[in-house]
Structure formats: structure tokens, C-alpha cells
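Q: Give me the 3D complex with zinc ion.
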Amino acid sequence: MRLLPFLIFAVVAVMILLPTLRRLRLPARPLPTTVGDELVKDPVCQTYIVKSRAVRRTTADGVRYFCSEQCARLDMGR
Ligand SMILES: [Zn+2]
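A: Here is the predicted complex, encoded as C-alpha cells.
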């Protein structure tokens, strides 16, 4: 049987390649973002921004979120 080593090689190759292919395919699917995905309103320009990416300012009234440093500065200047 000359075919046997080839068959064994083929089976082993598939066993090694399949999990690798599955792992490569996984990151293509966007993972659901659960942390910091909350929307907050910019009190200066009334724009909604994702909390995790907003510019954060802690004031006497609490934490305020802004779309940019410019808006944060404008609010402080009030
Ligand atoms: Zn803004």
C-alpha cells in the first residue's frame, strides 16, 4: 500500500488546518460591543456620541461628555 502514508498525511493536514481556518474566520465577525457603547449627549452642540469615545469633563454637577475638546472648552467658558 503506497497510498497509506499519503492518506495519513492528508488526514493529519486536515486536522491541523481546520481549526486554523476556523480561527482565521472568527475575527471577521464583528464582536458585539457591550462596554462603553452607551450614547451620551453633548450639551454644547447637542450631538450624540459614544460614551467610550467622548471627551470627559468632571464638574461640580457631575460628569459631562463632549464630542470634542473644543466643545468641552466652550462649556467650561460659560
Ligand atoms: Zn460638540
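A quick observation: The mean pLDDT is 85.
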